[in-house]
Amino acid sequence: MADSLLRQWKILHCVPRAPRRIKIAELIEQLRQNDIDVPTHRTVQRDLDVLAHIFPMLKSTKQGNAHYWFMDTEKEVLDIPRMESPTALAFYLAEQQLRNELPTSALEHLQAHFNTARKILDKHPSVYSDWRNNIRVMPQTQKLLAPEIPKDVLETIYTALLEKRRFEAKYYGRRDDQFKHYRVNPLALIFRGTVTYLVCTLRDYQDIRLLSLHRFVEAVLTNAPTKTPPGFDLDTYIQQGHVDFLIGETIELELLINDEVAIHLHESKLHPQQKITRLQDNQHRFQAQVQDTGQLRWWLLGFADQIEVVKPDALRAEFTEKIAKMAARYQKESDE
User: Fold this and answer.
1) What local confidence, expressed as pLDDT, does residue 1 receive?
2) Residue 35 Rama label (left phi>0; alpha psi -120 to 50; beta)
3) Among 35, 41, 108, 321, which lies 20 to 30 A Cα-Cα from 184?
4) What pLDDT is stored for residue 334 in this prediction?
5) How far apart (Å, rounded) are the C-alpha atoms in residues 45 and 40?
6) How many whole angstroms separate alpha carbon 334 and alpha carbon 312?
7) Which long-range contacts link 31-37 to residues 24+ away (Cβ below 8 Å)?
8) pLDDT at residue 2 tops 60
9) Spatial distance between the Cα atoms of 187 and 234, rounded to a whole number of angstroms
10) Which of 225, 244, 93, 228 is nearest to 163 (CA)?
């Protein structure tokens, strides 16, 4: 009895969620890899039939001579042990946070968990279910909607990463008017704001690329295994500034900032070793060593006339030119 219960429990773990499916021969192989003794094909078939009567979301479909099994978890998940109120609240907050940051096709993979969490909070009133009425998650910057990613493309890329396999793809560059064919060697995913980036290499090259998932228009899984470039480490790659659109080496940044910006940077530091010195006329000198990136420029420009770039000289000259062009553009529109 104990052996059959363990086998059935493992079967539930091996059956994938739709749209993925698995046939009994593949199930038997996975069970054996988990050191589960499987007498016959018929035994697993009987186990599946029993489980399907207990768990309505366990379903099958016939293709050719084989039956394929899957979990239809569109509405809610198979929840053993049952999700408790603190966990349900965590899923509720995650849904609020991710709603505008992930494409719909990505959220669909989590929707069953969100539905289960909401059902628990509604069914069992508690301090947690009341708490959700007093919490809202707001974006730090201007709210933007996540670009949509084709569902089949997203599924292929997720599977490629999970199973460490390459895929063939069609990809539109940022300024291209036609797609390019790539053989993609996926390494990692980075979620930043509303955009999801794939860290990868292409073909047999070793240089690391950062591609936006929403620009993939087609992706087909291959059986070729992925290869990690020598020395690649995701955290090191991020710390080096590549995800911030690295432009140059570390720079000595010096700014003149007003009181409001000084308070902001005291509370939310740009760098752990930054230095802020009070000057006259409500001005402050800000100094720090930072990566020279496109993200830094966007952040600085967001403060408008509240800051002045003092050093490095090249960055000051760049901002002087940008500001002059901005002023000329506004002046042109005023003259018209």
Assistant:
1) 46
2) left
3) 108
4) 61
5) 9
6) 33
7) 31/7, 34/10, 36/6, 36/7, 36/10, 37/3, 37/7
8) no
9) 8
10) 225
Q: Are 129 and 148 in contact (CB under 8 A)?
A: no
Across 255-263, average pLDDT:
94
DSSP 120-169: HHHHS--HHHHHGGG-----SS---PPPP--HHHHHHHHHHHHHTEEEEE
- Tell me if the bond preceding 312 is cis, omega within 30° of 0: yes
Counts for the chain of helices (H) and strands (E), in that order: 12, 12
Enumerate residues 6+ apart whose C-beta is below 8 A from 190: 196, 197, 199, 210, 238, 243
Return d(Cα 318, Cα 51) in angstroms, integer. Answer: 67
pLDDT single digits (tens) 21-35: 888 888 888 888 777
As given in the structure block, the two tokens for residue 212 are: 């936006």
128 pLDDT band (50/70/90 cuts)?
low
What topology is assigned to 2-71 in CATH? Arc Repressor Mutant, subunit A (1.10.10)
d(CA 14, CA 78): 13
Question: Per-domain residue ranges for the chain?
Answer: 2-71, 85-134, 151-239, 243-333
